[in-house]
Amino acid sequence: MDLVLVNLIDGLVTGLLLFMLSAGLTLIFSMMGVLNFAHASFYMLGAYFAYQISIALGFWMGLLIAPLIVGVIGAGVERYGLRRVHQYGHVPELIFTFGLALLIEELVQFIWGRNQMPYQIPDVLNFTAFAISGNSIPAYKVFMIFISVAIFIGLLYVLTKTRVGMIIQAALSYPRTVEALGHNVPLIFMGVFGVGTALAGVAGVIAGPVLGTFPGMAFVLGSIVFVTIVIGGLGSLWGALVASLLIGWITTFAKSYNIRMEDILNGIGISTPENLSDSMFRDIWAVTSPQIADILPYILMVLILIFRPYGLFGNRDA
Amino acid sequence: MSNPMKENQITTDPSKPAQRMRAGSLRIAALPWVIAGLALLVMPFVFNDNSAITIMNQMAITIIFALAYNMLLGQGGMLSFGHAVYAGVGGFACMHVMASTDFFEMLPLPVLPIFGGLFGMGLAMIVGSFSTRSAGTVFAMISLGVGELIAACSVIIVAFFGGEEGISGDRTYGMPFFGIEFLHQIEVYYLIAFWLMVSALLMYLFSRTPIGRMANAVRDNPERAEFLGYSSRWVRYYSFIFSGFFAGIAGGLFAINYEIVTEENLNTASSGVILLVTFLGGVGFFFGPIIGAIAFTLLQTVLSLQTDLWAFYAGVLFLATVMFFPGGLAGLLMMHVPAIKMGRASKLVVPYITTLIPALIGILGLSALVEMTFHVRHSSVGDEEMTVFWTTFDSHDILPWAVAIGVTVVAFAVMRMMLPTLRAAWADANATKANTSNGGAA
Amino acid sequence: MRKSIKLGLSAALALSVSTAAVFAENVKIAFIDPLSGGFAATGINGLHQFEFAAETLVNAKGGVLDGDMFEILPFDNKISPKESLIQLQVAIDQGARYIVQGNSSGVANALTEAIDKHNRRNPDSQVLFLNYSAVDPALTNEKCNFWHFRFDPHSDMKMAALTDMIAENQDIKKVYIIGQDYSFGKAVADAAVSMLAEKRPDIEVVGNELHPIGKVKDFTPYARKVVSSGADAVITGNWGADMLGLGKSILENGFEGPIFTYYAAADGITAAFGESGVDSLYLVAEGDDNPAPKPETQEYIQAFKAKYPDGNMSQSRITNVIQMLAQAINEAGTATDVVKVASALEGMHFTDSLWSSKDMYMRPEDHQLIQDIHIFGHQPVEAPYDMDNSGYGLKVQYTVENASADIATTCEMKRP
């Protein structure tokens, strides 16, 4: 049973990391209707910039500066790329971000080469915070939890309690009206895009040392971020949080317990065929939950889209 | 954005003529088809070595697949992130037919792609039954989810998909077709060319049927289509299953050409590639995907022989296309139709030459600079010699850099100087119909 | 639009023709491996080792036959079977008669079948496939053919060596097996289970599982299971980012036993493990100790590192491929009749001048090279014999001589 607690903590870390990416994306998506395929690429840029800065100035300066650079680049992409493409419609916008993701990956390889970067956890955090029956919880994971919770609270505060947040929320639903009231909506778009990508950058900075800093890191995360915001409901920060945690826990628990398809099928009354090794379906019978852990979110998304197209917390059609 | 539901609908922008599937009469002009058929017949005599034929086979397969994809994206306004699945499943079905010796021996090889088509269609019927209920993001995300699921299954369900090694067969075990055993690439080329003509023609005819026409209407305005008494859901469904059929044909031809199908035939990367190919060519015109498939195959297969940075150039090309020519390459070509119709195209020839040649030189200069930077950064120590554009020089020397930078800057400066002339000529050539052009984006 | 094909193809063809004209005398070896994309690091490092070996070991010594030089033609297959087959065709058209490839058994499977068919259908342009790294046992068993030669011990042979070492270590009572969910990962797991049962029936396999390949973002849950199972040792066939992620997670979660691997070195992995991998990571491979005992080998490595400071001399089998091919061409007296070269290559006894002085034997029954296999440990190693310039590298811990020389094969070789 101790393992359950350990898995809860691990799932929380995974989920919160996913949340930092999906929080920015869900704002961008709901505001501009852009499926930003390059969002995970900004996460990768965050990790690489932070690695480069950490060589010269140490980890903490990297944590401070790298997201800012990523945010500025993001805002630049919105201002000089997306805004231009926006007039052509949503498909060109999407292709734009698709091409951008491709280009960023190539650029990263161009500059840093194709190997894993030795981006390490800072020494101050490189110890075991506590252990639960032999399973150690590194201090760095605790640190990751704190950072992401702080970001969530900050974001929630800005969006619901401040004037800027109110304007952003209004611009989400009624951009024309907000513009008519004298607010600079394109500037708001640019700001939201910049902040969203900067959040992805933060995620990259703190995930780089544990999940590896390499040119494929954006692709690995890639579409799972979309899945998260679609499950949570577009434009909903709470939805993004719940979906992120849900995905974090589902995948962690599926990996931790060897649930076998054979047991499930036997459990619901289907008996194992006698000549299993000749059966066309032998591979389905042999499936275990760790094998399919990472595709469970996709199954969940398809089911949700069929039965509840606006997601868990969304209030409008996806 | 007062209506978020409509706003989030992913469609090509119908207000842009370059993106609109052009309406025409039901009669088909026979001439382009005859020319295309003759060209396909003659091609292997022009490029007669095996690698050229292999590349042309790959092109033809990509063309069929891209045309099938455009039945969704261009004609139906449905954005799919998992269309490789239908081509892949078609390919796997054909490979299983090839592997079942007794049956395959009674089957002439040219008939085989039909099995691929039927399997692709069958899968599309199942998936489409729930994914085509709405267009827009819901459709896009379901296609992504289903695509990921089936791609993941391909590694888990080894009995059908063969794991990551895929499954392979031998096309020559089929029943000889008029004495042809399809031992050589050239025989396969003609088989693929035949299917290319047949499927392209059928897909074109489909776009002229009432159902094909309604797909456009549903894409542009589903509500009005409903008022006309058409169920937009069923219209989408039909487009989807026909698209699945032709994707399956492409998959079957893939199986015949390569004699192996693997996980890469269904994964999301392949689905992404076909989206890029179609868009690069232009979703607004029937022949757009054809251009896209040809351009992309050259980029991927021929350019990658020349430089490791091919993917970088491909990325730049896509960004440039989407930013400056959202109608794709086909849209770019079709922009000139009004001028040609008015007989004023000749006015554009000289300004084009004076602008595009410096632009081309500038781009080549820029790519030379990129290659040189790459070489300086990543080549081995002491290896300072490099070759760009058939010129060999020392990449650590100042002179080549000065030349490359100089050429690039001068070329772009000349291009800038010439640009107003081109704009004026463009406006002049399209004087009466300027409103239908794409705003002189050239 | 028709014009664009014409232009592009003519350019490609003109280039291929011009290269053919300039190097008419060369023995062309097509290197088909990923040079762009996620696996490019391994591919490019392999290419450098091939180029360096051909230059230093063959061309600088006067080439083969009457001074014919080896020329390596690089082709980027983007680790895709489809692209590999296209590039194979281009390579053959450019006059390559020898194909080398190593990354991904999936690609190797596609290539070996395509080459078998090509050679049957085009007897005038037959080619040989020299596989330097794809370790799926099937390639020299049920899928073997006359044109394929493997220079790396296959995964069962490597597992036999690993289990020999494990069997001698009486501290190991429980073993956890984890790998990527595809043919290689499964082959490693099956071999480990059956060989452990044979050599040390008292060892308990406390975990045997597969995870999706290249899709796992966080290996912590797997690492938790390894730790809580009470395993004394871990066996994994993981490579690339999956190896690094799994290894780091297991070590971070407090696992202290040995981790036996196939590919936990080079391409950034050694550097990323750094101090944490010392006395924990083990790797099975051919080759020799670091620094190499022989002065000429040290010189060879120094020269390689001077030319490619970021490179790793990570695949010593590459020099075997080049040297054995050169010897076979000289013995056959021709570089163009690949059937003669293949006949010279099969059954060849070869004494390597660099790594080991022992005899290597290309087994004619299945075209599998028989050689010594070592288990290396991740240890501090001085430059330039370290990996990734990290100060850490591989030191021999255990050696099996002429490993698996009599391993059974199901190959039924059909000779032309």
From TrEMBL, chain A:
GO terms for molecular function: transmembrane transporter activity. Belongs to the binding-protein-dependent transport system permease family. LivHM subfamily. One of its GO terms (biological process) is amino acid transport. The chain crosses the membrane at residues 12-37, 49-73, 94-112, 142-160, 181-206, 218-251, 295-313. This is ABC transporter permease. It comes from the Bacteria. GO terms for cellular component: plasma membrane. It is found in: Cell membrane. InterPro entries: ABC_transp_permease, BCAA_transport_permease. Keywords: Amino-acid transport, Cell membrane, Membrane, Transmembrane, Transmembrane helix, Transport. The keyword GTP-binding does not apply. PANTHER family: ABC TRANSPORTER ATP-BINDING PROTEIN, BRANCHED-CHAIN AMINO ACID TRANSPORT SYSTEM PERMEASE PROTEIN LIVH. It comes from Pseudosulfitobacter pseudonitzschiae. It is a multi-pass membrane protein. The keyword Transmembrane applies.
From TrEMBL, chain B:
It is found in: Cell membrane. It is a multi-pass membrane protein. GO terms for cellular component: plasma membrane. The chain crosses the membrane at residues 26-47, 53-72, 79-99, 111-131, 138-162, 182-206, 237-261, 273-299, 311-337, 349-370, 398-419. Keywords: Cell membrane, Membrane, Transmembrane, Transmembrane helix. The keyword Metal-binding does not apply. GO terms for molecular function: branched-chain amino acid transmembrane transporter activity. The keyword Transmembrane applies. PANTHER family: ABC TRANSPORTER ATP-BINDING PROTEIN (PTHR30482:SF17), HIGH-AFFINITY BRANCHED-CHAIN AMINO ACID TRANSPORT SYSTEM PERMEASE (PTHR30482). This is ABC transporter permease.
UniProtKB/TrEMBL annotation, chain C:
Residues 1-24 form the signal peptide. Residues 27-376 form the Leucine-binding protein domain. GO terms for biological process: amino acid transport. It comes from the Bacteria. SUPFAM superfamilies: Periplasmic binding protein-like I. Keywords: Amino-acid transport, Signal, Transport. InterPro entries: BCAA_transport, Leu-bd, Peripla_BP_I. Pfam families: Peripla_BP_6. PANTHER family: ABC TRANSPORTER SUBSTRATE-BINDING PROTEIN, LEUCINE-SPECIFIC-BINDING PROTEIN. Belongs to the leucine-binding protein family. This is Branched-chain amino acid ABC transporter substrate-binding protein.
